[in-house]
Amino acid sequence: MGRRHRRPSGPIGGWRERGTRRVAVIAVVVAVLAGLFGAVALASPTTRAQLGLGAPAASAYPPVPIPELGPLAPTAPVPTRSGLDKVLAGPASAPELGNLSGVVLDSSAPRGSAPLWQRGQNEGMVPGSVTKLLTAAATLLSLNPTDRLATTVVPGPTPDSVVLVGGGDPSLTALPVGKNSVYPEPARIDDLAEQVKKAVGRPITTVYTDTSLWTGPELARSWDPADVGTGDVAPMTALMLDGGRTDPTIQDGPRSDDPAAAAGKAFADAVGAQNVEPGRAAANSPTLGSVSSPPIASLIEYMLTASDNVTAEAMARQVAISRQGDPSFDGAAKEVSAALSQAGYATSGLVLNDGSGLSPDNRITTSLLGSVLASASAVSQNPNDVQYLRPILTGLPVAGGGGTLADRFTDGRSIAGRGVVRAKTGTLSGASSLAGVVSDVDGRLLVFAFISNGTSPADARPKLDAIAAALSRCGCRS
């Protein structure tokens, strides 16, 4: 593998997965999947508006089409295996893809059905940020999608002190009402401070910060500490502002090296306290104030669209907490895998060291990715899966439309996928991945997962786009 490289200039970008680079009109995104579950299920208007994904972006490429919303015919023909073999033979054999693992599934087939196309689908591959698909699935299978994460304040050891208790909410912000951070509907320090000042009724001089909800190291063993300064991740602590960002309005800006202290300082300023110190809340302390994160489903959508590593790690720890495991890197990885296994997914070959995919030591099979995505997109065969996993689909970036696919699918071999491919991306040094859904020319919704290892992402990513675009042009029955 080798370390992650810094981002060069140019249209491809860097070798590592970053957040939202450019946004564009995505009104179309509900159309390609509307036949499965209707436009309302995919629209997620609150999250989309808060993410700012409605602003047009200047581009030399054809705009994302805006077809009339309508259902995909449930009787649309299914591609044949021989047809897919013919269509994908060329794109999937590109030498730029190195070692390619992949799978294509019919979204309406019962779970466990044979893939329509497959190559090395049971081989554990270095995945990059498609790891977030598994974190999302485990979170939605373990928590209620309407649950929220609370940041609370309780009395301190002296009458003039309080304890700010982190609840694992990465969205907490010191921005005032009317100013938006990168998170949808974030919890606000100002709201919390007003509750506490009213409840205490006297001057507060000291704020203690309690980060005891999570355990273990703040950075994973295989992470590069330099990734904090470049904005890929922050030290993982249960108390932070804006995912640890130093500028809460910039998705990929630098992160703080001490997010808990920054949060404590912001709260102390809001209540007029002079001192900030680490501390621990006493057991069974009364609550002086509390603010809550967006719903879990909204955090999942944001995490996938922006490919935000901090949010992914926060969600993985919530899985561990909900399953009474250890909320550390190791414990969260163990519980994410256990949640998927308990739900009936085959986890053979799965190796997790984090919840975001920043670790080059992760290994995931495309068979597992395909199964999770098929559950999220199917209706008739897996109604329980759909009920819980739907935010995975609504959070997927749209080719040429927004999120981490805003500037992808731009050449002649891939441009047909713009607006009809929805997929999670993944990029590390020597590893590139793309996993999502696409509607073919007959109106059949297909699930795909591809991971390329051993070549430069600058070379591999356009070839992965070309494979997904080939599926969008596919009738593939001969």
Automatic annotation (TrEMBL):
UniProt GO molecular function: serine-type carboxypeptidase activity
Record key words, sorted: Carboxypeptidase, Hydrolase, Protease
One GO term of the biological process aspect: proteolysis
Chain positions covered by the region annotation Disordered: 245-264
UniProt keyword annotation of Magnesium present: no
SUPFAM superfamilies: beta-lactamase/transpeptidase-like (SSF56601)
Keyword Manganese: no
Family recorded in the similarity comment: Belongs to the peptidase S13 family.
Name recorded for this polypeptide: D-alanyl-D-alanine carboxypeptidase/D-alanyl-D-alanine-endopeptidase (Penicillin-binding protein 4)
Origin species: Pseudonocardia sediminis
